[in-house]
Fold:
Amino acid sequence: MPTNNEQINFQPLDAETPEGYLADVGLPYDDNRGYGWITERSVGVLNPKPLDVSNGARDRERIEDQRIDTFMHMQFPNRTPGAWEYALENGIYEVAVGVGDPAFANSIYQINVEGEEIIAGFEPSPSNRFTGGTGTVAVTDGKLTVDAIGGENTKINLIRFTPLTELVAQINFQSEDAEAPEGYLVDAGLSYDDNRGYGWIREDSLSAEEQIPWTISNLGRERQSESDQRLDTFMHMQYPGRVAGAWEYALPNGSYSVTVGVGDPAATESVHQINIEGEELIGGFTPDETENFEIATATVEVEDGKLTVDALGGENTKIDFIQIAAFDSEDASVDAKINFQPEDAETPEDYTADVGLSYDDNRGYGWIREDSLSAEDRIPWDRSDLGRERQVETDQKLDTLMHMQYPGRVAGAWEYALDNGTYEVTVSVGDAAATNSTHQINVEGVALIDSFVPEVEEAFQVGTATVDVSDGKLTVDALGGENTKINYIEIASADM
Structure:
């Protein structure tokens, strides 16, 4: 059965599955399995058409990393293009996708997840066949949907997704006698009540010291014309000639992801407006015969113990449903320890080895050209032949190193993918066998080690600083140094 935290590898049935991954071999979407393929043309429709794409799976048997040696054609030439879906609880997810083909560079890669562009128009070359992308998306219909609309011959290697929220409540607004959608609580227009924990108040009391509970139960509707019950039912928030209503839901203070649907399958005489905690979520949506509904998601802060929804600025707004999900109150902490070394050297305990491979989105760290730091697209750069193990120092972290600035060679910088935030970073430089350097380490532009010239008695220097990451990657360079050699790096979330 599917879970909300998964790693999927796209591959042929007879290919070896990478450790920790679930194999997708191209079978049509099936509710019992909980994931699979549909036709690209049916993305966004209520009942998408399942599609078997198993004959588009490949195992090239060319490279060691099985995750990127295998893939699934999403847009095989002259065949029906496919999209992929996975059943998930509604909420906010961080999604990472890898694409590429180790044998051919004949694609324009495009990956959209829940309509959000994750990989845009990547054109591979013989020296750069793979790319990856990460994004945050909202699932509002119980399925994560991945398509390649806008690409040509897109081939997907893998996908990973992690929930960032936990579902708190799903409320459907409807008449009392209407059938409730599965998994939803019913709001039939009753006034706010502390025991129930949700309900309606007068819109004109929002700014008062005490809001006035208000019953609008005679304003719920069921049209019996839309197959999605969430959209077939609604509550008038602003019925003409009546007191307008706002809605509240009792919650602990904190950050929430909120999704709201508005619209009426039988009428278009509205200008729908939804504000959550004073923030505009749906702004002046005017439906027409081809587009009756709008669904939107936003992150809001609750500071007074209640989530408040109003329609101020709208005309005859009709609300269909609301989904509320809480963000994890404890941010996931980072504790990464990387040792720079040759591939055949022993890795120090509790450290991950960096052996000089070029930056890769799937791995999440690696090397780039130092001279591409200011470019819009930084250039991945392999320097695996510049790792050293001196075998003279008992501390393996100091006995090994990577040349960042080897004489006569292109200088390298190093990057590590991180959520934006504040981090404490420790770096060591030096060489147990030579003192022919002026070591410089800059992390996110902050000089951590500044022009350290070693001596035999003092071959190493360690520096620590707190830095801010604002572009999704921690960047380490040696600009200003000469023959800088890096031993290890430690990265930890800062206590702020």
Notes: The first helix runs from residue 66 to 69. Helices lie at 66-69, 229-232, 396-399. The radius of gyration is 27 Å.
